Amino acid sequence: MATLSQFDVLTLRRDFPILQQEVHGKPLAFLDSAASSQKPRRVIETLEDYYRRYNANVHRGVYRLSEEATFAYERARGKIARLINAPSQREVVFVRNTTEAINLVAYAWGGANIRAGDRILLTMMEHHSNIVPWQLLAQRTGAELVYLPFDGQGRLALDDLDRLLDERVKMVAFTHQSNVFGTINPVTTIVERARAVGARVLLDAAQSVPHMPVDVQALGVDFLAFSGHKMCGPTGIGVLWGRRELLNAMPPFLGGGSMIDLVELDHSTFAAAPARFEAGTPAIGEAIALGEAADYLREVGLATIHHHEQELTAYALTRLAEVPGLTVYGPPAGLDRGGAVSFTLAGVHPHDVAAILDQEGVAVRAGHHCTQPLHRVLGVPATTRASFYLYNLPEEIDRLVSGLHKARQIFA
Ligand code: PMP
After folding, report:
1. Quick one: pLDDT at residue 1?
2. What is the pLDDT of residues 347-393, one digit of tens each?
C-alpha cells in the first residue's frame, strides 16, 4: 500500500491555503478535522468557478448556462457514486449533511415501515444525529429504541447482539467510525446479524467516507449517510446513498418543486429517486465542489489516507501515554482504530486544555462532541479531542503533547 512520506504530506499541505497561516504567532496545527476538514484550493476554485462562470438553476432551463450547471451537478453525483462504489448514481441523493440524511430515512422510510412495538437498534456511541431522529420516529409511532453498549476500550459489545437483536428489530443504525473513540466498527458482522432477523441497516459514515475506502456493495448496508464538509468539500452539502428499490418505495421527505411527476390540485405523484428526495433548488455549486473533493481524495488514495492516519494515531497514542494524568478513551492502536483521539487530563477542564492548546496554535475540540449518552457512560461531562487527516504531520502531535505538559504546569 502506498504510504505518505513527510515530503508527500508537506506537498499536500500546499494544496490547503488555510494551513499556511499562524495563530497566536505560531504555525496553525489543525487537529480538528473530525469536526470539519479543511479544503484544498481546487475545491474552493471549483465552487468559485460555478458562481463566476455558469451559475444557473439545474434541471430547468434549456439555455446554455443551465445545461452546463445541470451537467456538472449530475456529473458530481456520478463522482460520489464512484467514491462509494454505488451500483447506480440514481441511488445518490444530495442533502445538506449527515444529519439531514438520517432524518430523511427516519422520517420517510421509518414512517412507512415502523409500527408500534417495532424496535430500532442503535449503539451507545452514536452521535446525536443518529439518535434524535430515531427518538422522534419512536415518539410518532410507538416504536422502541434499544442500545448496544460498548466495552472498556470503546468497542461495541457484540456479545450483547444476541440479547438485543430479534425479529422485533426493523432497523439497525450505527456509526462506521466513532467520532470520540475512533473505533472502526465491524460493519459486515453487524450487517450479517441484522439480515438474519430481517432488519435494515443504516450506516453513519460521517467519519469513514472521508478517511478510508468505503464500498457500499461490499459492506452490504441499505443506507449510508455522510457530510461534504468533513471530506474536503463545502458545508451545506451531504449525501444519502440508499438501495434503489428502497428509495423508490419510500414516500417523500420534503415536498415541492423538482421532486414531482404530476401535480393536481388535491394530490401529486412523485419522481423516482434521487429527484424524489431533492425538493427545491439544491446546493448546486456545493455539490459540484463536493465532486471535486471526491476526485481529490481518490487521487491521493483513500487507502493511503487511512494508512497515514493510522500511523499518526499510533504515534499520538504513544506520545500521549507520556503525559502524567492523561486518560485516553477508545481502543489501542490497531486496525480498528481511526484518527480521533479523545482524552481527559486530571485536574484540568477539557475546555481549559483546548484554550491553552489554542495559545500554542494547536486547534482541538473540547466538549461532548454531540455524544452525551457516550460521555455519561464514561462518567465525564466532556473530553478534549484531537483528530487527524491527510495533511497532518507527526510534529503537530509533538506540539499537542508539549501543549498538554504546559497545561499541567499551569493548572498544577
Ligand atoms: N455522525 C458522526 C459520527 C459525526 O461525527 C457527525 C459530525 N460530528 C455527524 C454524524 C453529523 O454530521 P453533520 O453535522 O455534518 O450533519
Report:
1. 55
2. 999 999 999 999 999 999 999 999 999 999 999 999 999 999 999 99
Please give the tally of structural domains in the chain: 2
Distance 98 CA to ligand 1 centre (A): 6
C-alpha dihedral over 325, 331, 332, 338, to 10 degrees?
-110
37 falls within a domain: no
On whether both 225 and 351 belong to a single domain, the answer is: no
What is the sign, positive or negative, of the torsion defined by CA atoms of 117, 123, 125, 129?
A: negative
Give, for ligand 1, the residue of 33, 99, 209, 239 to mutate: max count of ligand atoms closer than 8 Å to Cβ: 99
pLDDT reported for residue 7: 87
Question: For helices 284-300 and 64-83, what crossing angle results, to 10°?
Answer: 40
Residue 206 CB less than 6 A away from ligand 1: yes
Whether residues 258 and 372 share a domain: the answer is: no
Q: Residue 278 is part of which domain span?
A: 45-299
* Together in a domain, 58 and 81: yes
| Residue to mutate, 37, 103, 129, ligand 1, most ligand atoms under 8 Å from C-beta | 129
Rounded-to-integer distance, Cα 98 and Cα 77, Å: 16
Would residue 232 show up in a list of annotated catalytic residues for this protein?
no
- Determine which one of 314, 370, 377, 393 is catalytic: 370
97 CB less than 6 Å from ligand 1?
yes
| CATH number of the domain bearing residue 179 | 3.40.640.10
Q: Ligand 1 atom closest to Cα of 100?
A: 16
Question: What ranges in 2-83 are assigned the alpha helix state H?
Answer: 6-13, 41-53, 64-83
pTM higher than the cut 0.85: yes
Domain boundary among 253, 283, 299: 299
| Polymer length of the chain | 412
Q: Domain holding 372: CATH number?
A: 3.90.1150.10
CA of 35 to the centre of ligand 1 (A): 8
CB atoms within 10 A of CB 118: 20
CB 237 within 8 A of CB 162: no
207-230 pLDDT, tens per residue? 999 999 999 999 999 999 999 999
Residues 85 and 221 in one domain: yes
- Distance in Å, CA 285 to ligand 1 centroid: 21
CA distance 407 to 351: 11
